[in-house]
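Morning, I've got a small favour to ask if you have a moment. I've been staring at a protein lately and its backbone has me curious. You're getting the sequence in one-letter code plus the fold written as tokens. I've dropped the whole record in just underneath, so have a look:
=====
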Amino acid sequence: MEHREFSRSGMQTAELFREINSVLNQRMRQSFQEVGLTPPQMMILHYLYNHNGCMVSDISQDLHLAASTVSSILDRLERNDFITRQRKQADKRVVQVILSQRALDWKDSLRANLDGTMERMVRNATDDELEQIISGLQLMKDVLNRNIQTEEGEEPHGDNCGS
């Protein structure tokens, strides 16, 4: 009985994640359609704003995306003059991804667009509801991290550093 209940909870959680992800992607797609960017392109730009000059393998590993997926997204960003790829002088096999001046000029505007979109999505929530949402998401993140640690053989411990 307990296993069946857990399974149902797992299915409900997965379904909620799918539904939330679908709504978020739809809203983000609409929001960035004006500037010709997709949610995956925005995700990589956001990553590059914090890690300019990184390698494709860094993006792939940190965002948990296949290198081929990252490369195709970077191809589109490069065609639209948001990034350039530069080979390192010391080792020509190493390619760095560099934000273009256009991407740097658009940074504040893209951030404001994203912030405005997120704000519109939760504008009808009360302060208490927003607090519950944030608390619930933080709890879910903690539980998932604890599961990962247990699966990797580490001792589970609380991590409230926000990363």
Observations:
- The beta strands are 83-87, 95-99.
- The chain is about 70% helix and 5% strand.
